[in-house]
Amino acid sequence: YHINSAVVPTPSANNGTLIANPLSASFGTQIFIDLFGQLWYRAISNGTWTGWSKTQPVLDSGYLSPTLINGFFDQNTLRYRKINGIVYINGAIGFNGTWPVNTPMFYLPVGFRPSSPTAMSLYLLYPNLASQLLQVGVNPDGTVTTLSVVNLVGTPTGSTNYSLGFAFPSP
After folding, report:
1. Strand ranges (DSSP E) for the chain?
2. Rounded CA separation 74/70 (Å)
3. Which residues of the chain have pLDDT under 70?
4. Of the candidates 162, 108, 167, 164, which has an alpha carbon nearest to the alpha carbon of residue 140?
5. How far is 20 from 111, CA to CA, in rounded Å?
6. How many CB atoms lie within 10 A of CB 156?
7. Cβ-count burial of 55 within 10 angstroms (0-12 exposed, 13-18 middle, 19+ buried)?
8. Which label site among 3, 80, 83, 102 has the fewest CB atoms less than 10 Å from its CB?
9. What percent of the chain has pLDDT over 70?
10. Are 104 and 112 in contact (CB under 8 A)?
11. How far is CA 16 from the centre of its chain?
């Protein structure tokens, strides 16, 4: 329903849309969205309404693809996104030859960078049961770099690629 806030009491002084989900006369929910996209909700239980609660908007950049540099290549849809101040990086990255350490793989743009250096360790298991520990660093300048690669058991065979999956806060 379109609601004129001057006629029907709403949680906002602005006009908006009311979405009602009545389960019965005693149970249900309502959502009000004003013309500026602000959202409130309330529920009725046993005939008693709760007060209106304002929700925080979900801020989601959607998935973005980094530009890989220094010989690194995308193995499986490497991507990143930011949801409510948390940056998520996932996918797989590859390199032909010995994996370089302290060499930038890609850069994150402003708005997707941590405020201080961040490091994540990833455990990798290969089909031949060899395993490695990869440490990835993300710096305030946006550089995403391999900090170290340690063979734990055996020597990996086949192509050199790593599945990345980690998150960190970004102001």
Report:
1. 2-3, 16-22, 28-34, 39-45, 48-49, 53-54, 72-74, 79-83, 86-95, 104-107, 118-125, 131-138, 143-153, 160-169
2. 12
3. 1, 5-8, 125-129, 154-161
4. 108
5. 37
6. 20
7. exposed
8. 102
9. 87
10. no
11. 30
